[in-house]
Write a structure and sequence with these properties.
695 residues; alpha/beta; nine-stranded parallel beta sheet; nine-stranded mixed beta sheet; 26 strands; 31% helix; globular; disordered N terminus; binds alpha-D-galactopyranose
Length: 695
């Protein structure tokens, strides 16, 4: 990342870059504003006024088609795509591009009736049926064949359409299936992986409770309680099956479309029924559906979900759906405050999104989601939120040039691992322990200070990071061990959080105590872990504080390993024992936290980690309630400030920057300003400033 603070030190104009050849004219603006539009639900006569209102709100793309199978293929083999062509042309007349969704998340009634074998079976053995959506079995060959045919027909027809910019496969992959046939497929998958039953029995320690298998067809499906090796393999099978389910449609589409039509699927934040790193591998870009549900948006927690999605392919992503004020599926579907939807849109852009799409444009007259937020009502007229979205569209037009070619370039990475999350969720040991909350306890202070954080897998390339944090990285594959060790030996600063490095790729305990294969490098290990019924005091380098929910007693073996934090008086076992230790390894270091991070201790720990790793805070003092995000590229840094505090806040910069959009009050302009260079400004609640440094 080009750090703004470092740039200031030079206080010189940036060197003129050699003239590069001009890139081809982009087909879409750098920041996209969209809506989920369902033309199949409406008389074509209504399309024109809907699209005109979209255009007036600066909406420049719609996603269409993802639940319209029965309209595209009203009976088997009877394809009707002319209406879709007319919808695409109508959108085009309003300068609105189209993202096409394949309709496989909503199989038509004729399909369910004719091919009941395509229906999914719930974990309790009950078959799903028609009348909702996602009732298909993700592993069924007939279902895949039918999904492939409709995807192919769509791709043949629209693969060269100039107004089609991309494809969404299916919609929110979620539910696996538990029929006897699924179980047989799982057994075959295990056989291909483990080769022999002896191997499987040994690696899963099936001698325990006489679980030993004599033939492959004895192996059950277990998804919540059972042998940890079996549980893990079922989730890995679920993942692999989603990947091949997706591949089926990807291959069909790629065979017919121009490469400029990029392909994605919409994922769901922390949702963890499958390993998103593996499923995202085959896509051109990642996207997700950003919903708050009840309450207000927390910029750090929502930002972490964006960073998670950006980490799937380690590049910019899209928000494929987000709530226009409120949803319909929470216990209390309160609306976001006036101004908060716009702040939320900038939260997405600040964390690397290229698009924000509202679900949905207009209330469907019937169907399950009549109460959901929209931008126009059932009457086709704008709801109050419409004008706020119009303002977002105007912002995006103003800021597009500045943000084009930029992304989030962080010096700090947090590692996230599905296998580790599953393993802890199956054996929480303390119901209150949540791996995502554990990750966020590091993320919040690190993001506030560093301005940007990557969230990536434990096998991602790490050498570009100054600091890598691994919270609750419970399972380590051999590849992850190699990656982490090479990172530390190469001068990196690695910090493990509690419950890390306990088990291997079969969910089997390591025979070395935590952090397992890295304990020797640390010069210390975990003597014992404790689920806590009350918090334990801690003190040391990061000041006095407490560890809640969980505590690990650390034993130090190497004289080079330094104790950072110590437990106070509690259960006797932990009294005066090390709570966090660190060891320098060449220019790098390895640190292990047995304690949790709470409040002021978390902030002090984050400051310490950043200082050890040589990462400068993005600006020296951020006012309370102000969120910062940073995007960089093309010789510029863009700092996005949003004030979530009810009070107006003053922000002081070290050097003047250009205001790309402004609802701030300028207080001072500095001598080095370019354009409208501003050094000090105030922001009201939900006010956004997009400040650019560079050219
Ligand atoms: C019971 C069982 C043991 C073991 C323990 C664990 O006593 O008999 O096999 O599961 O519980 O507490
Ligand atoms: C999900 C789905 C949409 C819609 C919204 C409602 O994100 O993908 O089809 O049901 O939820 O919030």
């Amino acid at each position: 990342m080009r750090r703004v603070v470092l740039v200031f030190a030079l206080a010189l104009p940036l060197a003129t870059l050699a003239q590069a050849p001009l890139p081809p004219e982009p087909r879409t603006p750098p920041l996209l504003l969209g809506a989920a539009w369902y033309p199949e639900q409406w008389d074509e006569a209504t399309w024109e006024s809907d699209l005109a209102l979209m255009e007036q709100a600066h909406i420049n793309f719609v996603r269409v088609g993802e639940f319209a199978w029965s309209k595209m293929e009203p009976s088997e083999g009877n394809f009707k795509l002319d209406w879709l062509e007319r919808a695409i042309r109508a959108a085009e007349r309003h300068h609105i591009a189209v993202m096409l969704g394949t309709p496989s998340a909503a199989p038509p009634a004729w399909l369910t009736q004719k091919y009941p074998e395509t229906l999914r079976t719930n974990a309790d053995g009950r078959k799903d049926g028609h009348g909702n959506r996602q009732q298909f079995d993700w592993s069924d060959p007939k279902y895949r064949e039918l999904a492939r045919i409709i995807a192919t027909k769509m791709a043949e027809r629209f693969g060269h359409d100039p107004n089609v910019i991309g494809w969404q496969i299916d919609n929110e992959y979620a539910n696996e299936s538990y029929s006897d046939i699924d179980r047989t497929r799982f057994q075959q998958w295990l056989k291909a992986k483990y080769k022999t039953l002896d191997n499987l029995n040994k690696r899963w320690t099936t001698a325990y409770w006489s679980e030993t298998y004599q033939s492959w067809d004895q192996i059950p499906i277990q998804s919540t309680y059972g042998n940890p090796g079996l549980l893990l393999n079922w989730r890995e099978f679920v993942t692999d099956t989603w990947r091949s389910y997706q591949r089926n449609q990807l291959d069909a589409i790629r065979a017919h479309v121009e490469p400029r039509q990029r392909i994605t699927t919409n994922m769901m934040g922390w949702f963890n029924a499958y390993d998103h790193y593996l499923v995202a591998q085959d896509l051109d870009f990642a996207s997700w559906d950003d919903y708050i549900g009840t309450g207000q948006m927390n910029p750090a927690e929502n930002g972490a979900r964006h960073d998670l999605t950006r980490g799937f392919l380690r590049k910019n992503f899209w928000v494929m759906e987000t709530q226009p004020g409120f949803v319909n599926w929470s216990a209390n579907n309160n609306a976001l405050n006036k101004g908060e939807v716009r702040a939320m849109a900038w939260n997405a852009i600040g964390h690397g999104s290229e698009a924000v799409e509202y679900w949905q444009w207009r209330s469907a007259l019937n169907g399950q989601e009549q109460y959901h937020g929209t931008l126009v009502g059932a009457d086709g007229k704008p709801v109050p939120l419409y004008s706020e979205v119009q303002q977002i569209g105007a912002d995006f037009e103003k800021a597009g040039d500045a943000l084009a070619g930029t992304t989030v370039e962080s010096d700090v990475a947090i590692l996230q691992d599905y296998e580790s999350r599953w393993a802890i969720e199956w054996q929480k040991h303390n119901q209150a322990f949540d791996p995502v909350q554990s990750l966020l306890s590091f993320y919040r202070p690190l993001h506030a200070l560093a301005g940007s954080v990557d969230i990536v897998s434990d096998t991602a390339p790490l050498s570009r990071y100054k600091l890598v944090v691994a919270p609750a990285l419970n399972l380590l594959t051999p590849a992850a061990v190699t990656n982490l060790e090479a990172y530390v030996r190469g001068g990196g600063h690695l910090v493990f959080g509690q419950r890390s490095a306990m088990k291997d790729e079969d969910n089997t305990l390591f025979t070395q105590r935590q952090p397992g294969p890295l304990a020797e490098l640390l010069g210390a290990n975990v003597a014992q872990w404790y689920a806590l019924d009350k918090s334990v005091p801690v003190s040391g380098t990061w000041g006095p504080g407490e560890s809640k929910i969980w505590a690990e007693q650390i034993a130090v073996q190497s004289p080079e390993t330094k104790i950072l934090m110590t437990y106070g008086k509690s259960n006797g076992w932990l009294d005066d024992q090390p709570a966090a230790v660190t060891r320098k390894i060449g220019r790098g270091s390895i640190t292990y936290l047995g304690m949790s991070l709470e409040g002021a201790t978390a902030e002090a720990a984050a400051k310490w980690m950043l200082k050890e790793a040589g990462v400068e805070p993005v600006i020296p003092k951020v006012p309370k309630g102000v969120d910062i995000a940073v995007r960089s590229g093309n010789s510029k840094d863009i700092l996005i400030f949003t004030n979530y505090s009810p009070e107006t806040r003053t922000i002081n910069l070290l050097t003047p920057m250009d205001n790309v959009i402004c609802d701030c009050k300028v207080l001072a302009t500095g001598p080095l300003g370019i354009g409208n260079g501003v050094k000090s400004f105030t922001l009201p609640q939900y006010g956004v400033a997009v400040m650019m440094y560079g050219k």
